Structures are given as structure tokens and as C-alpha cells.
Amino acid sequence: MNLHTINIIKSTVPVLQEQGEEITSHFYKMMFNHHPELLNIFNHANQKQGRQQKALAGSILAAAANIDNLEAILPVVKTIGHKHRSLGIKPEHYPIVGKYLLLAIKEVLGEDATDEIMEAWEIAYGFIADTFISIEQQMYEEANLNGGWKDFRKFVVYKKVKESKMITSFYLRPEDGKEISNFLPGQYISIKMNIEGKKHTHIRQYSLSDSPNKNYYRISVKREVGFDNKPDGVVSNNLHDHVNQGDIVQVSAPAGDFVLNTEHDLPIVLISGGVGLTPMISMLNTLIKKQPSRPVYFIHAAINSEYHAFRDHVQQLTEKHDLLNYLVCYQTPTEQDKQTSSFEKEGFIEMEWLKSILPSQADFYFCGPVPFMKLLYKGLKKWGVDLHHIHYEFFGPKAEIEE
Known about the structure:
The structure is a single chain. The chain is α/β, with parallel strands linked by helices. It folds into 3 domains: 3-143, Globins (Globin-like, Orthogonal Bundle), CATH 1.10.490.10; 152-252, Elongation Factor Tu (Ef-tu), domain 3 (Beta Barrel); 268-393, Nucleotide-binding domain of ferredoxin-NADP reductase (FNR) module (Rossmann fold), CATH 3.40.50. It has helices at 3-11, 13-34, 44-49, 51-65, 74-87, 93-109, 115-143, 234-242, 277-290, 311-320, 335-340, 351-357, 370-383, and strands at residues 152-162, 167-174, 188-193, 202-207, 217-222, 248-252, 268-273, 296-302, 324-330, 345-346, 363-367, 390-393. The strands form 2 sheets. The protein has a 6-stranded antiparallel beta sheet, with helices on both faces. The active site is at 94 (charge relay system), 136 (charge relay system). Residues 147-403 are annotated as: Reductase. Belongs to the globin family. Two-domain flavohemoproteins subfamily.
């Protein structure tokens, strides 16, 4: 791209800030109307909630603002690349996306979308798409190594275990009995399902909830119930209700860049809310094995003990390891919880409480509901924790955590 094209793209940043979500909403509507087969890849729930539109708008804005230095947003590109690889996004999908994205820009901006602007965006999109394709191609190649695979592979559910009132674990082994690829603590797999009564294939990503180097993968899935007790999580609820021991599921190779750093020995803090504890359990199990002399603070928030998965597992680890500190926060503890003193704090996790029990010089990892994540991120920054020591994971499209 020449300087003239770069300047034109940068000049559209204010417009993208104002009308980005309108453009992406229009884009998805047009693309799915003309290519309904892509609904077999995209998350329908995120579409309905507007989360995907918002996430794409943010990505386009970031790309436009950094079009002359895409390396500045390389971490974001890689995060998206991991998700794309686990979903099965391929190079042939990018021209389709580009066609309807450009049409959406032109239709939403109307007369402001001059020929010069549209030509610049066509060039810029090709440049951005090539960057994604190159990174994702490397990810596909890496995923195919050492027991890995490129797309989806059949796995058998060899064990199904209820962990709490709402969370159930599924232990998965490859149907062909061959080697499976290793993974990094914090990574996820995608589950692809054809669900009775649903027209399209559904794909959802679930964090791996056990340590690596085993002959199985484990995911721990929350039953998602929407308003008025109407099912909200199509795949999650189907797993709970209809997938049992001996059944087959389609699984992607592990992916994701929210991973545990074991290269130094700073104290490590793992904070989770609800089902956000799944990657934290993987990290905790790994730390106990690989770095038993590293101080660990494991803090979990749940409604009460009935909703608290892996409680006994973490408690047993705590009893065996002096450097593991285990603290629990219950929003509405039961009477039995109160009688047995099975928690340290009632209500919600708050920064003042965390500051009273944690070292500020530590590696912080957290995962949970979006409001919970925003509170922690802002609180840790205000406390003076270096951004290099703040690590987090969203389930679903990445939100603006600083909103």
C-alpha cells in the first residue's frame, strides 16, 4: 500500500468509530443472505446478541487505525487467528467476507463512500486478509503436528461427570485410538454438533479443564439457561441433555493464546467466576506438577456450594501443598455453607478485599462473566499492576474490557 491509500484509510477512522456496528450488522445480514452455508461456522447466539457485530467493528477500527503498522495489533490478530483456526475458517472465506464488507461500507456511508475511499478499502482489505491468512496457515500447520489434525476429528465421550448443579465434565478420547496433540494450560477446543431440529451445524469453544500430557481431553460445560428458564446455550444444553458415555463428538485441535507462563517464579493469582474456573483448573493442576515451589493463590466466586465445581479437588490440593492458598467467595451462601464456614467472603469479589489478601507483585490470570472481568481489569490497573502481568480470557467475542 502506498502512503496515499494509508492516509485515506486513516481518514475513515472517525466514521468507523461512529458507524462501525451499523456497518458490521449490515455486513452479516447481507453475507448470510447470500451465503447461508456460513451459518454452519458462525456463533448464532453471538449474532443475535450483537456481540459478533461489535467485536468485528472493533477489529476493523483497530486495523484501520494501525494500517501502516499492523504489527502493533499482532496480538489481537493472533487471538482472532486462533479462533478462526479452531472454527475451520479457510482462505477461500476471505474473498466472500471482503465482498460483503465493502458493500456494507458503501451502503451505510452512502454518498460519503467515494470511489477513492472504496478503492482504498479494497486494497486495505486485501492487505489485512493476506495477513490473517498467512498467520492462520501457520497455525493450521502447527496444529497438524505431533498427534494433531487440521479440521475436526471424532472423539468418544468415555466419561461424563456432574461437577456441580450446573457444570458437567466430559472426558474425550479419539475414536481412532491414535495420539492426540498436547496443549498449553488455558487453551480450548471447539465442539461441532449437528443438533436435531436445527438447520445448521453449531460450533462452540470450551476451555480444557485438566492439565496437559494426558491421553484424553476434558471440558467442563455449564448448562446455559436464558431468561424465563428458556435454554440459551444450544450446544452446551445439548451436551448436558443428549450426549452421554459412548457418544461421538467432533473436536478441533487445541487453540488459544490465553496460556500459563511457567518461565518465571513470581507468585501467581488465578481468579475465576462461575464456569470461568475451567481454564484455571488446568493452570492449577499444571502448576502443582511443574512448579510446586511457586506460591499460588486460587480465588473462586460462585453463587454457593451447590454451584461450585471442583471445590473438593482444589481443597485436597491445598491440604497437600503449603504454597497453595485457596479462597472462596459465595454470592448467596446456603445455611449449610454458613454453618461449615466453607467460604471466606459473602457477596461479590471486590478489589479492596483482593488487595488485603494478595501480593501486588504477581502474575494475575482471570476469567468469568464480562462485568466481573471489567472490574478486575480496571481494579488491577488502578492498583498499579503492570499490564504484562495481567492476563484474561473472554468466552465469546472479545469485549472492550475498559468500557
